[in-house]
Specification:
The structure is a homodimer of 428-residue chains. Chain A has 428 residues and is α/β, with parallel strands linked by helices. Helix content of chain A is 42%, strand content 14%. In chain A, helix 1 runs antiparallel to helix 15 and helix 9 packs across helix 10. Chains A and B meet through helix 2, helix 5, helix 7, helix 11 and helix 12 of A and helix 2, helix 5, helix 7, helix 11 and helix 12 of B.
Chain lengths: 428, 428
């Protein structure tokens, strides 16, 4: 029976029972964590071969004879470009292979656009910001670390609602056509953080084709989960750069990816894909900033994976470890919450998150109840700019990191907390 | 006999002989390089053990249990701080251990100061630059990549002459006391690039104590060669941060170092040392930019070196390979050029360079002659801001990279080119 259809007495009884069960768990003094999208130690163990992929002096040379131990090659070694280009769906002329963090590349690109401009003649964003507040589009719910970057750089962030097809493109098209102070949009187009949805072909095409008042508008296309499938029915994402080329808008596209959740979050490689013009511009700025990324770590990745197929095969091993964790949480929610009609959540085919929408006004309370019972969640609101979820409804569940027994326990406590918050909301 | 004392006929005869010898070398079609301060392959081979210092899953954990493969720790692992803190002469609370390039940290710090300010309440440099041209002090001759960064960020660079004690502090003190548009100074305080000199105690103290009109003036103390001694009579450098603390000026000091010339230029670790206030400020900005540096590579360094003493012992192996290369060049210069009285050069106790001052107006000609005979040097002028050596005199010789036989040949051709240019200058 749905909770909203219960009589007052039924609701009170349900609340009392649930609270008792919750208190029993709370008394255990647990310490469980479903907060961050981190690979588990089991997943990291899959990559052990990477550690010794370059183990002697003679292993340190690239195919063209470059000594990867020494200075040089600001945009990555050729064979690394070759195996990672298919990951982003770009050519080897449209990719840079860099350090250990795509987030850092995004931050640095925005910093460069602030100080030097986007390279097409438009004034640096920092100069434009003298006269008007610059703005940024933020599909919500989204990735807290994206929002933190644009907040720090002083952009006014505008929430864009999303559904199962991606962001609301009617709204985006209208805004960017009218307002030249809007300089960019954050997108996680595949297995989005946190919703798990993949942008539809139509959404991708509209991003590629839309008219923008600002000639220096940029799409930050963080394709962090592009090969992170969970099952045999993966989503498919249209290639934004190719679609943008057809419309003559290729310079608005900046694509990012990394091996943070392929090899190691702390010691992987990150990639940047863009039009040849954008690559040339960013490279020209980077030659002042860097004498080159860690080429030896790039070589490790090349020797470990050999080909792009080697990477996608490796991802199946990750899926085998992650899929049961998603299932553990989803089963609990299906069994305990679905019949009550008090929440919605996503069942993604990939990525790292389940996005959970509680009844309005309940997310903070749920996180508080979980915390008091020893379960850490990403803070309510974190999936919105400024940490402000206007509905106080969305919670990001990250099931990958904990051991599965802990996860089952955490999911149980989460479900109890959802029930309690809903009862309270309904007047119990 | 000194060249200037020769009769016209003697000079002509000397010129003719030298030119003949030069042409013989030129006819060989050589390809030699004394341009960049790069370690040789032999030096890089010294560090082979680093490659397998972390080779299995169980090796990947820091002393405190941190899994170095996963996300986290934005400012470096504790044991890396411990072994590198003595290198900069700071405490473990005054250091960050980061990625593979100190140059990148310097660039990023300036970028942050442009956009966000230095953290002491002064306006961001980018905002201040609206109303006045900002300036930067550049001891010359100096490091071309330093100058390129401040040029790119739009600073007007002011040349500061240096002697064997360091930069001209009378000039610096006067300038910074009067002009609050001067925001910083580049320093390579030990075995300077390219002069090889080490700043005297007095110079360091005056940097620490001087009054600056700008409250956001910063000393970029690039201590790239602090442990890069060539012999048993190393220079000693006073600790700038400690001296600055005594004067209450510790926040003006930003110190940099790396293992680029200790382990690998392409795959080492870089360190940043500063007051606790500066470290806290930069860390607060970096938490938005990065989820942490490559901790696994830090762990490799820790396991390979074990202690700071392990690092300094390792440097002796480098010295054993580099010192003969310096000697090869210096011997040639002492034998061939010294008697002629047409140039001066440095004989450093460490570092990577010999700084050569030819007769005024001869540097470009010497580099041209060398190039035509197949010897690549750092371009004349590169050691000055904007590539402009007003005397056209200074040439940076980098003897570390070529095999010693090639180096001897290159030094021979260099000496011949110096003689030819001097003869031409004297009217031959």
């Amino acid at each position: 029976m749905e909770l909203a259809e219960m009589k007052k007495s039924e609701l009170e009884q349900f609340y009392k029972q649930t609270k008792e069960e919750y208190e029993n768990y709370k008394a255990k003094g647990l310490s469980l964590n479903m907060a961050r999208g981190k690979p588990s130690a089991e997943q990291l163990d899959l990559t052990e071969g990477l550690l010794s992929a370059v183990k002697s002096n003679k292993d340190c040379y690239a195919e063209d004879g470059t000594d990867c131990r020494n200075y040089g090659i600001v945009d990555g070694i050729a064979e690394a470009k070759k195996i990672f280009a298919p990951m982003l769906g770009v050519s080897e002329k449209e990719i840079m292979v860099l350090g250990n963090s795509s987030l850092t590349i995004m931050y640095d690109n925005i910093a460069k656009f602030m100080v030097f401009g986007t390279g097409n003649g438009a004034e640096p964003w920092g100069i434009q910001a003298r006269d008007k507040k610059l703005k940024w589009l933020c599909p919500v719910p989204g990735y807290d670390r994206h929002f933190l970057i644009t907040e720090k750089f002083g952009f006014e962030m505008i929430n864009i609602p999303t559904d199962e097809n991606g962001p609301n493109m009617d709204m985006i098209e209208k805004l960017v056509a009218e307002d030249d102070s809007i300089k960019g949009v954050w997108c996680v187009p595949m297995y989005a953080n946190p919703t798990g949805i993949t942008f539809s072909d139509e959404v991708v095409r509209r991003f590629a084709q839309m008219k923008t008042a600002a000639n220096d508008f940029r799409i930050f296309w963080d394709n962090a989960y592009c090969i992170h499938h969970l099952n045999d029915t993966p989503d498919k994402l249209l290639n934004l750069l190719e679609e943008a080329k057809k419309a003559g808008n290729e310079d608005r596209v900046l694509m990012y990816g990394s091996t943070s959740k392929v090899t190691y979050p702390g010691a992987g490689v990150a990639v940047f894909g863009a039009s040849e013009a954008n690559i040339a511009y960013i490279r020209s700025l980077m030659t002042v900033q860097s004498i080159g990324p860690d080429k030896l770590n790039q070589l490790r990745h090349v020797k470990f994976f050999k080909t792009f197929d080697g990477i996608t095969e490796h991802m199946k091993k990750h899926a085998a470890l992650i899929e049961p964790r998603f299932k553990a949480v989803l089963d609990e929610l299906d069994r305990e919450i679905a019949p009550l009609g008090i929440a919605k959540w996503t069942k993604p085919n990939g990525g790292y998150f389940i996005s959970f929408d509680a009844m309005k006004g309940c997310a903070k309370r749920i996180c508080q109840l979980c915390k008091e019972a020893g379960v850490i969640l990403t803070g309510a609101g974190a999936t919105f700019p400024y940490g402000n979820d206007p509905d106080d409804s969305n919670i990001r569940i990250a099931p990958t990191y904990p051991p599965i027994e802990e996860l089952e326990l955490a999911a149980r406590i989460f479900a109890l907390s959802v029930k309690i918050a809903a009862c309270e909301k309904l007047g119990a």
